[in-house]
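Ops channel
N.P.: pipeline sanity check, posting one input/output pair.
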């Protein structure tokens, strides 16, 4: 049997597909549910449960630090909204795409809500964080107008609040890095693969001393 297995793997490697087969059989990608997410074109884990569309390294860092005392605001809704709702007290999101808004709104549990704000209505989208007149422990900038959204978000964080900027590898967001540094925030960036797609990306968390995630 061992000789047969060795022969089969030799053939697969000659054909150039040995690595691909091995990744399907036993790998971190399989454990994280990447193949399921790729097939479904959704950010989900291996059990088809919702995940945020962040790097896997960041998801693993963030998840054990969340708790039911935290209130979250998101720019951009989706499976991340459902994921945060399972792990925190309350989630509020804002969305600019009406079709996507209508789809996600019907999937949310009682402790999650989503606001619709068109991008054509002045600054209503980036100012949505102020609509409920409350402070948030965690603000996620993962939608449109990200630099402007970061600027609006700072004053709506609790004293121990943190901010997440997704896809932070983009040069266009250096403005946000500079602003948050000037406001006393440090940051940690998490590179790696993420659900659905095969390329590397980066998720960055910005924090101050004594933050709610104990970083």
């Amino acid at each position: 049997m061992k000789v047969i297995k060795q022969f089969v793997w030799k053939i697969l490697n000659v054909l150039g597909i040995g690595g691909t087969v091995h990744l399907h059989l036993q790998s971190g990608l399989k454990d994280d549910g990447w193949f399921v997410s790729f097939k479904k074109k959704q950010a989900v884990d291996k059990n088809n449960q919702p995940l945020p569309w962040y790097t896997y390294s960041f998801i693993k860092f963030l998840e054990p630090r969340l708790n039911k005392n935290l209130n979250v605001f998101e720019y951009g809704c989706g499976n991340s909204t459902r994921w945060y709702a399972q792990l925190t007290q309350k989630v509020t999101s804002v969305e600019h795409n009406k079709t996507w808004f209508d789809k996600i709104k019907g999937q949310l549990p009682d402790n999650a809500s989503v606001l619709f704000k068109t991008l054509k209505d002045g600054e209503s989208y980036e100012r949505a964080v102020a609509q409920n007149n409350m402070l948030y422990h965690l603000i996620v900038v993962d939608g449109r107008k990200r630099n402007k959204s970061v600027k609006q978000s700072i004053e709506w964080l609790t004293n121990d609040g943190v901010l997440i900027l997704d896809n932070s590898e983009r040069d266009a967001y250096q403005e946000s890095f500079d602003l948050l540094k000037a406001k006393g925030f440090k940051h940690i960036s998490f590179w790696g693969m993420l659900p659905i797609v095969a390329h590397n990306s980066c998720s960055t968390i910005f924090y101050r001393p004594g933050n709610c995630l104990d970083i």
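N.P.: looks fine end to end. The chain has a mean pLDDT of 89.
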